[in-house]
User: Fold these one by one.
Assistant:
Number 1:
Amino acid sequence: MSLFTEEQLDSPAGYFPAQPSQTLDNGRWTITRKLGWGPRSSTWLALDSVGRYGAIKIFTVEATEDSTGANERKMLLGPVKNVPSGVPEILSDFYEHDSKGKRHLCLVLRVLGPSVENLRLSNTYDGEYLLLHSVQKIVGDISTRLGGLAEEKIVHGAVTADNFLFWSIQAGDDIRRELAKSPSTRAEKTVGSDGVTYSSVKSQPFPNGFTWDSPKDDIICAQLYLSNYAYAGSNGGAVRLGGPKNVQPPEALKGERIDHKSDIWMLGCTAYHLLTGSPLFSDSYIDSPISVATEIVGKLESLLTESGKLSEKDIPPTVAFLRSCLAIKPAKRVSAAEILQGSWVFSGCSCGWCG
């Protein structure tokens, strides 16, 4: 059992052991709060020397050295900038060395909020799923982002709920007010499996007011961003997909050509997981993707009925949507634009302030 509740600071991947009040980039940035973490990085709210806040994504030593971190920087500074909305904005980048002398790539991004996966997992006592209208809104917004990427001929490569981030407060005054209401938790000392004592810090993303059971009139005001471009690449190029293998499309598992329709497969798998609280495919799919997918997709009606999460009238249109994403042959899958033209999703914001 892990000794750490969040990132494994004793992992060979080499996480950067940051903590509040620590300075980065030769004193330019001061860490004020931990926002989150993932398998390749941790993200920290920091204040720069001129009073500007940023979210600093600090990559592991492994992600710094294996080029996935550099690929994310290249994509965010390059073609992703042409996507009109709903993608991270990079402000600057630098390298930081840890106490062992290991180098970590750091990307300074606009502050964003918690992930859709955080929202799903918050439904602890009722099955870790989201309501249908929330999933329809989430899929609609992410399809908009995927449509923008497809126009730029970009494959995202990691279309999973932990990479769907809610918009967050970004103005300095708003951030200071939130920090005053909810200060950063203190670092706790944890002895790793290597015998070294580490300072571990709990993530505190800024709240966004949404809950797993938010009504439709509330969740429609959400703005979702598609983050994590470590695995992104050119359509049809040598893209290595991220995320669990049981959400990757058959063509990826068979080593065949990847394109924007591969993102659509992952979106369909993610939608099912959000709707039911359970992954669509088990590990048996990885070894025999076509036969297992054909069988499972063929019985979506019964799977959704057995889940008990959808009403009887909502199952047929949901099955139709999922099957349109999960066609075995990529050419037969819907595009992001076709998803948005359909009636199953809704996207955008009804707050009256967004364009």
Number 2:
Amino acid sequence: MPGTLPATYVRGFHDEQKVRRMEYRKLGKTGLEVSKVSFGGGALCANYGFDLDEGISTVHEALKSGINYIDTAPWYGQGRSEEVLGQALKDVPRECYYIATKVARYDLDYENMFDFSAKKTRESVEKSLKLLGLDYVDVIQIHDIEFAKDLDIVINETLPTLEQLVKEGKARFIGVSAYPISVLKECLTRAKGRFDTVLTYSRYTLTDETLLEYLDFFKSQNIGVICAAAHGLGLLTNSGPQPWHPASEDQKAIARRASELCKERGVELGKLAMYYTMQGLADVSTFLVGMQTRQLLRINLEAFEQGLSEQEQEVLRYLQENVFTKPFNWEGNELKLYWAAMKKK
């Protein structure tokens, strides 16, 4: 609850007043209490346009404001996000934060994009620790498991390697991520009790509430649920998505209409999106959002701490009634491109 100081609070480093405004929730069975708003490192690379000094300052301000959970991955800028976080965290007390990274998704070219093998998994964790400048990460996650040729390799090769790395003290807990939530449920069912966290992204937003169908299942597994990408990977912002965004052109046009309406009325669509996603969902541990500037950080914290102004609420209602009238997602779009490219090899 807001008002209490978490285990990660360090006197002299944190802004105590801001930390007391943050809400902390249990991350499943891990024993960790994580901030309701958490820091997505996916934006700390060229994927979203990025300035190094500003990115580092944003990490520092986020931590001092009470955000204590950071997520990154080798895939984000092919190691750049981890490298930037390594620079940002070198002067930060280790007890101030929990950090998660991932394995299995790596390079931009399709042939080397995914590798779920034991060998690559171990190499990847070692490399991540080196880039981050850390002896261990708090959570190590298997990234985008829907791209594995089948779940057998994930459960019989990737997962046991991570379990061994936990025994060696290089990670504390194990997580899994994917865009289709059905594959997450299948994986958790087959490897019952072996995962501690699940990361689902862009599945509880202004355009898609698929996550609601699975929350009871996740709760029954005592899994920490990380609800990421309220902005739909940049789709639900005034600046709009990057060229690589997997949504269809029709879906992008709907989002563009919403952002234009928001601009006309002097409102940031990203703030409305963040506010909407963070309401309710008591069974979610944390809402993970990518932020590469202090301005974006402050907008997201404002959505959490102060909610929306009357005008912003009015615009949100209008969008729900007139623009986002039918739910949509882009499930399968990336998979189709990936397997078509792999067949050409």
Number 3:
Amino acid sequence: MGHVSKRLYSTASKVAVSTSHLKQFPPREAIVRQTGRAVVAVIRSPDVIRRACTHKSFVNLHTKYYPSSPTPPTNADLASLGNALMGLFASEHLHASYPHLPTRVLKAAVSAHVGPLTCASVAHEMGAAALLRWYRQPMTPTSPALLHSDALASIPRALTALVYQERSLSSARKFVHSFFLGRQVDLRAMLKFQDPKRALMETVAKFGRERPKSRLLKETGRFSNSPIFVVGIYSGADKLGEGFGSSLKMAEYRAAEDALHRLYLTRTPSHLLQLPSSTFGTQGDIYNPGPAVDYTPGALGEAEILYASSGRSGIVAPKQPTIDELEARKDDV
């Protein structure tokens, strides 16, 4: 231990406040104050909230210093249940909102909304960081190292499971929508295409439209050192996309990418959005039939272009035969 580390350790030991005079830590008043009125209105027991804020790694620390005391309950089971519920709510919401979203982008969007980093951020915003009880664990051959953000992410998951247990599935869905799914996530940055022009040609052919053509819309400074070109891509008389760049090739690339973004990021209007989990009643028991709920499933989106879903594999989809070619094959047979 270096000189600076010794100074910090000695200073921290002098100013540290002992909690031995408290009957329980964190105290009940701190739990009610830190978790907020919204959670306390649903989960009225501070002991349950204390369990939601206790990571399973805390058991090792508690057993080390208090071997004769009973093991405190942890949020391991609650976090697992809450993680499954949050994944369900995020998946159905994103799939219903963006029916044409590619599969890999959908998975990335779900992680962006309810992933570990987002859960840790929400826990900070809720004020639950001060109530977390955990113990840092190093990396082992069978498990990665446990960081503070990983332990903190278990709190919103456990709270989601508690809302589901105490209230109903619809209440848990409202909780997740309020704290997680209402956030703005840039989905355009997740859509990357290795060759957007080729992907657009395949997409237009799949819909039976005319072959896309590029047209120069505007330009300035062609013979200068900073030219600007604006290119639009058209299928017949319909404009599919528009892009700009310092060269015609760059502008055409961005125009094709913009056309694909307009397709894959087509969003369902909020008044037409219906979720499959909304068919369950508002009661806690989802197995008992409740009042009938009108539900109309949304239309399935178009399958994404195989080689354009990620931009990393380099897979090129085989060219699909046209209707004329299929008719010619039937005539030959």
